[in-house]
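Give me structure tokens for this 198-residue protein.
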Amino acid sequence: MFASQLGLSLIMVAIASEIGWHVTQCWYYQNDFTMLNFMFYFFLLSAFILWADGLSQETNTLTNIVNGVFAVGLLAVSILYPIGYKIQVMTHDLDAANKFKIPIYIVLTIVFSVLTYRGYKLLEDWRIVFFPLFSVGVNLSFVFLLEQKGGNPISAPQVLYNALFHILHDFAGTQAGVAIFTWLVQLSKNNPPVTYDL
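Here you go.
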């Protein structure tokens, strides 16, 4: 339980870092490498890893392997992100640098898969699929719209679209998914806990 509570707290640290990152960009989306962007990914991954670990009802070989994969993934992200930053600074080639963010997306996919599975096993509610659907699917849809329609502060300041898609990618995406998960937990609070292997 403590791990899940700590994970939920770290989500707020991640969101605060993301907001700081967007403020430094004048709220115009750029997929660049900054300390605040690293903090966002690091704390978001840490939060969901702790949350997933907190949903594990027993410790066995499989849960230890999954935790090992989480730890190695977080370490890899912590090593590769600064390399991507150096490439961005030295070559000014953001496309080449962004290849070093791919491990972040892979680790996030693994963590979300385990978190969704453990949440389903614990809650036994099919509606848990709405958690990754909103936290990942809806979120990334608005990020895509930001990149396509959000404009830039110099030549095409699409203020309305930029603000709208920024707000929606957080509130209708990530935070809606977390709200759905916590709502499902609230609905099932009177059910006894279920134990499982993963």
